[in-house]
Amino acid sequence: MRNLSIVVEYDGTAFYGWQQQPDKRTVQGELETVLGKITGEEIKLTAAGRTDQGVHALGQVANFHTESQLDLDAIKNGANSMAGDDLHIKDIAVVPEDFNSRYWAKSKVYEYHLTFEPSPFRTRYTWYLKQPLDIARMRAAIPSLTGKRDFSHFSVRNGSALAVCDVRDITLAGASTEVVIRVEGDRFLRKMVRGIVGFLVDVGRGRFAVNSAAEIFSGARQDINFAPAQGLFLVSVSYE
């Protein structure tokens, strides 16, 4: 028995998210199907995180156990030949028997892409905003969003001990036509990055004050907007 880890890249536009769902095309479902055909086994993947419908990945990590002794390149190349063009296994490796892509992860990096230029070729990968944002205000609000905190009000779940996340870094790279917000943390709740981005965009629009994050964390305000899915990318997962 081998435990194999794969690094996967995908365009989330045509997928109903990562997690297997009956009668819907999902990343997990497609990968398990093609890997099952290659190994002749029923494959069950564990992912570092479950991306939502429309969210993309440049470096999603997943692992599975198999009795197959096929060459790793044969497994990777075979899966890539059968999977859709919007899904690609970038790397495959043998990992320790007890390795778990989700529980061994030390940190994840997400990027969110905003654009101020309308383009039919970019709308599936960016959030198009018709008005410019006050980038200085957005940058000033970032320190209030970092650290170990209960992010339940920036997500779609209720508060609990499991809602505490350590957001280690947020950076904002901006130009006149595009802004990229990069978020690194130990773990993320569902839609949490989109909640952070939505909040920062509303700071840039003037809807929220620079210091309004405290009101969101406390639950005094619960009216944040979530950024749409298509601008979000899971960039990488770290295990060190």
Number of domains: 2
Report the CATH architecture of the largest domain.
2-Layer Sandwich
Largest sheet: 10 strands, mixed
CATH top level class name of the largest domain: Alpha Beta
CATH topology category name of the largest domain: Alpha-Beta Plaits
Question: CATH homologous superfamily of the largest domain - what is it?
Answer: Pseudouridine synthase I, catalytic domain, C-terminal subdomain
Mean pLDDT comes to 95
The amount of helix comes to 10-25%
Explain this structure to me?
The mean pLDDT is 95. Strands 1, 2, 3, 4, 5, 6, 7, 8, 9 and 10 form a ten-stranded mixed β-sheet that branches. This protein is α+β, with helices and mostly antiparallel strands. 21% of the residues lie in helices and 30% in strands. Helix 1 crosses helix 2 (72-82) and helix 3 packs across helix 4. It is built from five helices and ten strands. Strand 2 and strand 3 form a beta hairpin. The chain has two domains: 2-95, Pseudouridine synthase I, catalytic domain, N-terminal subdomain (Alpha-Beta Plaits), CATH 3.30.70; 107-238, Alpha-Beta Plaits (2-Layer Sandwich).
